Amino acid sequence: MRNRPVLVDTDPGIDDAVALLVLWRHRRIETKGILASYGNVPLSMTAANARRLKKLFGWEIPVWEGASAPIFGKAGKTADYIHGEDGLAGLGKILTPAPDTPIPEGEDGIEAAYRRICELGTVDYISLGPLTNLAMLTRRHPDAWEHIGRVVSMGGGIDIGNVTGNAEFNIHCDAEAAAEVFANAPELWMAPLNITTQVALGIDEIRKLTEGGGELHTVFRRLLETNFKNCTEYGEPGSIMHDSVAVLLYIYPELFETMRCGIAVDCSKERYGKTSVTSVRQNVLLPTKANCRGLLDRIGECL
After folding, report:
1. Average per-residue pLDDT in the chain?
2. Among this protein's residues, is 26 annotated catalytic?
3. Which of 18, 84, 138, 291 has its CA 20 to 30 A from that of 45?
4. Range of the domain at 131
């Protein structure tokens, strides 16, 4: 079957950078746009980081600025304690971003993404950050769901969290948006913390993978070594590849065991952002097990 066009929604972020590298290596032609979001760091930084990575890869792809805050209220805590103040381990001072992608007068990034989706007919939508952009896009244009074949989301966890005991970061950023997307997406593939936290690069593997020299290896050595240091200080087993797992779920689904279910997102104050398995709707493909060594090997092949 021919690969569908892809739009990627992201908040770079170190693990987002690795996920974009994997997508560039495997689906560079099919990927038709990057929609930046607030999340790991503020929108102004994530959009610049997406353009920095685009330039580093030599990737001819538009980058649009999406939401700067959740649907209701303002952006909360960032994850700069993992990714660095600029989201890229301080490399924002060194890497020059590609120029802004022009959009028609009176149009914002979410409108530009919607227009591109309609032009392409049917796309797969990979979300590596909060689901605010997609919720806003489909609120404005409910017909967009007719053009989205599959949503792939890094987010959530089943009886596990990393912001609270109940909630994962991306869902906790905007639980209302996540609840809308999980309820309305015709088909959604979810990469939860239960799986992503098992996919971690050790320091020796990072150094081996990035020993080739050249700008790309130099950049990713710094990113991954910083991520390793910060992740292990928080008790994690290594440089966690959350977002790459979502991209690899999309590209290599055979590396996962999955179940079909529904997912409910709790928007109550007490359990804000908690994701739970339900029997309602059955529109979610949820991994229950993964070939972690196989996933790490696929990431390593991209470096």
Report:
1. 96
2. no
3. 138
4. 6-302
Does the structure show a pLDDT above 80 at 261? yes
- Give the phi and the psi of residue 4 in degrees, each rounded to 5: -75, 155
Token pair listed for 253 = 């689904």
Neighbours of 113 (CB within 10 A): 27
262: in domain: yes
Domain with 95 in it: what CATH number?
3.90.245.10
Tell me how far CA of residue 33 lies from CA of 2, 129, 293, in angstroms.
Answer: 18, 15, 30
Is 161 part of a structural domain of the chain? yes
Q: Which of 26, 83, 172, 242 is catalytic?
A: 242
Q: How many residues are listed for the chain in this entry?
A: 303
Q: In the chain, what is the straight-line distance between the N-terminal and C-terminal CA atoms, in Å?
A: 27
Residue 87 vs residues 42, 45, 79, 228, 253: alpha-carbon distances, Å: 9, 7, 8, 14, 29
Query: Within a domain: residue 1?
Result: no
Res. 15: pLDDT tops 70: yes
Q: Which residues contact 23 (CB under 8 A, 6 or more apart)?
A: 6, 8, 31, 126, 247
pLDDT digits (tens, 9 = 90+) for 140-193: 999 999 999 999 999 999 999 999 999 999 999 999 999 999 999 999 999 999
- Give per-residue pLDDT as tens, 17-69: 999 999 999 999 999 999 999 999 999 999 999 999 999 999 999 999 999 99
Cβ atoms of residues 174 and 132 within 8 Å:
yes
Q: What torsion, rounded to 10 degrees, do the Cα atoms 136, 176, 131, 141 define? A: -20
Q: What pTM did the predictor assign? A: 0.97
Q: Domain total for the chain?
A: 1
For residue 13, the model assigns a pLDDT of 95
